[in-house]
Amino acid sequence: MENTLDSKIIRCRYGSEDKVIKDYSCFGWTIASKTLLNRFGNPLPVDARISEDDKREKCSWELTFKRFVTPDKAQKLYLLENEYDSLTIANTSFGRGRITGAVFLTLASIVSFITYGSSFYRTTNEFEATTTLTTMFLIFGLAFAGGLAAVLVPGILRVSKAVKQNEETEKARKEILKKARKIIEEE
To answer: What distance lies between CA 186 and its chain's CA centroid?
Structure first.
């Protein structure tokens, strides 16, 4: 059976191009061209002066690959590529909403404690004011700790679950790459 020439274009984030090239080489792809794109998807001029930080934040690569394999191998590799591409990495960020909630909860507790605490020091009986203030401090402290735990614990659990899921995804991807290498190497 005669070999056929296939081509493929993949866009990836700036900084991840080496991993993409390495992974897709396992499917028989070789890099034909590499084009740096701005955030709008337009090619950047060769003489563009952009800092590394801006490139990481705003740019991506358009990678053009070519592959010269038999149609039988191409079909097997195509199925493995689809399986590989369907395995996505989960987001492991903690979440801005949780951090904002924790900050708001802290500020609300401090303001409430100061507001109610200052009203009790206006009483004439110092012992009663101190006792009430201490009790109030414990109540607000427990409410704050409980609220903070309610905001933070689910975030921590979500991140932990996402990290485990990503480890399993990486294992599955490595297995797919092994299978693809075997197909490429068989005669």
So the answer is: 36
Task: Tell me how many degrees the CA angle 96-102-107 measures, rounded to the nearest 5.
Answer: 125
Residues 85, 50: contact at Cβ < 8 Å? Answer: no
Q: What is the CA radius of gyration of the chain?
A: 29
8-state DSSP, 43: B
How much is the pTM?
A: 0.70
The count of other CB atoms within 10 Å of the CB of residue 93 is 10
Q: Are 151 and 109 contacting, i.e. CB atoms less than 8 angstroms apart? A: no
Spatial distance between the Cα atoms of 106 and 37, rounded to a whole number of angstroms? 43
pLDDT values of the chain reduced to their tens digit, one per residue, 187 residues: 688 889 999 999 999 999 999 999 999 999 999 999 998 889 988 778 888 888 888 899 999 999 999 989 999 999 999 999 999 988 887 766 666 776 777 777 777 767 766 666 665 577 776 777 777 777 777 777 777 777 778 888 888 899 999 999 999 999 999 999 999 988 6
